[in-house]
Amino acid sequence: MTRHSIILAGLLFTAIPGVAFAQSYEAELDPTPFDATARDIVIGSIGDVSATLSGDTLTVTGKFSDLTSPASAAQLRTGLAKGVPGDAISTLMVSHGQKGTVSGTVKLTPAQIAALNKQSIYVRIDSEKAPDGNLQGWLEPAGERNN
Amino acid sequence: MSARNLFLGGSAAAFLTIGGACILAPFALAQGAVAVVTQAQVVAGQAGYIRACAGCHRANLVGGGDAPALGGAGFVASWGNRSTKDFYQFIATSMPSGAPGSLSEKAYADITAYLLAANGAKIGTTPYSKNTDVKVSIVANGKMPADFGKTAAPKAGATTASNSDIVQLNRRTDLMAPAFKLGETVHGTVKNYVDVSDEMLRNPSDGEWLMYRRNYQGWSYSPLKQIDAGNVKQLTLKWAWNMNEGGANQVTPIVHSGVIFLSNTSNTVQAIDAHTGELIWENRLGPVSVIAYGGTRSLAVYHDKVYVATTDAKIHALDARTGKEVWSHPLGNPNNSNTGGVMVMRGKVLTGLTGCDNYSKNNCYISAFDADTGNPAWKFYTTALEGQPGGDTWNGLPNLLRGGGDTWIAGTYDPELNTTYWGVAQTKPWFRASRKTGNAATLYSSSTLALDPDTGKLKWYFQHAPGESLDLDEVFERVLIDHGDQKTLMTIGKPGLLWKLDRETGKFLGVKETIFQNVFADINHETGAVTYRSDILNQKTNEWLSSCPGPEGGHDWQATSYYQPDDILIIPLSQSCVMIQGHDVEQKLGGGGTAASQKFFFMPGTHQNMGRLSAYRTSDMKEMWSWQQRAPFLSAVLSTAGGLAFVGDFDRHFKAVDARTGKILWQIRLGNTVQGYPVSFSLDGKQYIAVTTGLGGGSPQQKPTALLNEVHRAATGNMLYVFALPDD
After folding, report:
1. Is A146 contained in some domain?
2. Chains A and B: how many Cβ contacts under 8 Å?
3. Residue A99: which CATH number?
């Protein structure tokens, strides 16, 4: 995401109070950080999510597959920047299988919306074998991902 | 095995002798409370460790380069809260570097047992197995028993045959079985060799490749244009040459007088007839490679000699016609190494130094030697020392604790300004919290240096990343480009920031982000000052930090090419991230090291594409084209006047792209990872493209090996391939 588009996204949201622009986001879900002991648990798992911010409400939907153990939990999280892990904002609903869906509706604070526009918000899916994270993906404005 | 059984393991030990040497007593001094290993395992594990691990992690477990410490506080920080089963699994699935899983289950169990015992684990009668599952901190406290491990086990690379100059090639893995005799093994003479003059180095003929990046300016651009966009699909293999296995193959073929001068791993230099692929002479200087990274990236030719800096930190001058050694000189101490190679300018051979990660009385430097005699000319310390300019940027640390500042890429040279430009790597240990430098700049790490090649005097410096903390060094090629009267220097380091400096003054001219990065919260485009993310600035040891990109770079040693016709710099980029954790180190002689652990992950937003090839116009730093692919590029870029750029990747593809658009025009799949520095040359009016494949290396090999689950490579495959258009 370019600096200009980040600014634009922020302006669109803040310029007209009371008017709820729907802003679309998306993320690929990749394996969480691993070393050799966790590699075989998380490598190969994959997924993607899309999200829509309407007013202060973020709606997340997505799917995942190829986990080596059933999904056990999912959260919306925020860190200091894209790629930086951080604390959970809210839990999400997730299918308890090795493939399935993830979804949820979360009301964001202004600070969390700012974090979303900084691409610091991400989705994490946990699994039975990887309870501290199996898949992760940072939300970016739809259509602006790297080519 | 249950915890109860672990506690029931006996502590009584028996005496054991190998080769007449009593070895029990040192191991019996272990401090841990629980016995999970046996004496026999520790003995066997020590031998296995020395063979397979010590080349990288060092015999005393302190680590080095990309290899973390396996003993002491760093070990406990990494593994104390994890299980012995995890520790085994980590080793068995990822080690030895470059050949994971290549040892037997017993060998891995023995090595694990040895490492636990070296960290204080008590020795008993219950053998360690891959299923032994107990918290590491219960059995090991990180304190090596006094006199531990002083046994008769062989040293890394040690002789096993009766003839002292025959060693088993690459004992690190099982990659190569044949015995390997050092010395001048093939005798011959290069006929029609023409001595290389200063003028030839300043203005190389179109058909030759006389130095690392072909010209002093570091362009990697060939004026040859017989092979072009219209005929590149017809490229065919003319001949190929098997190179030494083991080590890291990251070589630049040097071409002169119809001969390819080729450095191989295990510090072997060869002269090969470029027409036929016939070996003319070979000098196996040694020592045999025992580590999986490093590499000898560049040779130099000047007058009647070939120059090579070897991985044991020596510089050698060989007779270019016969390969016989004319002179040699040590570069550093036994812990040092050289991988960047050499450059010759104004009658001097200049070279850098690596292996400066452990605390040593010998700080890192660039040095110069008289090309004819080998007499030392000057040294420039790349870690500013106490009392010297810049020496006050180390938070008061004594010289002994000023690690790093390695120079592992050869410099470039501006003959008009009589200035040579070098990049300096990061400070060691990697984390400022480990090395206790606070937020000090630690000059001259992560800097560009402008030196007088006659005296070694510093003309100016520019520090790109003061106090760098994440193994994101800025050591790579400095490319010299003129825009009218403006003389610029361009370089890109691991963070992926493309820098432009005035090379007369060092003044900052511009910076461009090429790939996603999250380590700098702010980059001042007026001054070039960077501000690290707040958690990086406030780091503590044993805490995980995110780094995008990670130590693979951004950009790494796979060098750029300046395609002069369009004023574009074509850059191989990599996209991966790490979580990285710095450890506490012992601040004493031999301590230090890189001192960090890593976890890998794909760079967000890249669709798991690790490779990116991009072109930037250097006048305004505008991106002209860019595309990404799954596999990262493990070769440098070569561009030619035929409008082509050649580059190779981890997954064995060697590609030619349209230099103006980036469109792929031709590709071929080679035997292994395309790794090294492709070159072009001509013989009798015919243009050739030469490229190497290779294994071994640090992060650029390790990250895709871990992340690209579907890529499978052979265990061997260091080769030289030479392509040309079909004969009429």
Report:
1. no
2. 95
3. 2.60.40
Q: Say whether pLDDT at B202 is over 90.
A: yes
Which residue type does B372 have? D
Res B67: pLDDT: 79
pLDDT at B1 over 60: no
Name the residue in chain A with its Cα closest to that of B575: A146
B140-157 mean pLDDT: 63
Of A37, A43, A145, the CB nearest to B605: A145
Q: What's the mean pLDDT when you consider all of chain B?
A: 89
Distance CA A136, CA A39 (A): 15
Q: Which helix (H) or strand (E) holds B8?
A: helix B3-8
The burial of B586, by beta-carbon neighbours within 10 Å (0-12 exposed, 13-18 middle, 19 or more buried), is given as: middle
Do A36 and B706 count as a contact with CB atoms less than 8 A apart? yes
Q: Is B310 inside a domain boundary?
A: no
Say which residues have a Cβ less than 8 Å from residue B357's Cβ, sequence separation at least 6. B63, B64, B65, B403, B404, B406, B428, B429, B592, B593, B594
- Residue B594: which CATH number? 2.140.10.10
Contact A31 B602 (CB under 8 A): yes
Domain count, chain A: 1
Q: Read off the pTM.
A: 0.89
Domain's final residue, options B97, B132, B167: B132
- Which chain A residue shows the shortest CA-CA distance from B100? A36
d(CA B140, CA B518): 36
Provide the domain limits for residue B494: 331-498+506-552+577-604
**Chain A nearest CA to B55, separation (Å):** 20
Contacts of A137 in chain B (CB under 8 A): 604
Q: Look at residue B269 and tell me if it is in a domain.
A: no
Answer whether A32 sits within 8 Å of B607, measured CB to CB.
Answer: no
Q: Which residues of B touch A36 (CB under 8 A)?
A: 89-91, 93-95, 100, 706
**Mean pLDDT, range A83-107, rounded to an integer:** 98
Residue at a domain's end among B566, B587, B604 = B604
- What is the DSSP pairing of strand A121-127 with strand A71-78? antiparallel
Side-chain-side CA neighbours of residue B425 (13 Å): 31
The verdict on residue B106 lying in a domain is yes
Domain membership of residue A78 as a residue range: 3-141
Q: Is residue A119 part of a domain?
A: yes
CA dihedral sign, ordered B109, B111, B116, B120: positive
| Per-residue pLDDT, A23 | 95
- Which residues contact residue B96 at a Cβ distance below 8 angstroms, ignoring those fewer than 6 apart? B52, B53, B56, B102, B103, B172, B173, B292
Per the structure, how many domains does chain B have?
2
Domain CATH for B55: 1.10.760.10
Is residue A21 very low, low, confident or very high in pLDDT (cuts 50, 70, 90)? low
* pLDDT tens string B560-597: 999 999 999 999 999 999 999 999 999 999 889 899 99
Tell me the pLDDT tens digit for each residue of B365-419: 999 999 999 999 999 999 999 999 999 999 999 999 999 999 999 999 999 999 9
Q: What is the pLDDT of residues B500-515, one digit of tens each?
A: 999 999 999 999 999 9
Q: Do A44 and B607 touch (CB under 8 A)?
A: no
Q: Which residues of B touch A84 (CB under 8 A)?
A: 518, 533, 535, 546
Task: Flag whether B76 is in a domain.
Answer: yes
Which of A15-24, B8-17, B600-609 is the most confident on average? B600-609
Contact B86 A37 (CB under 8 A): yes
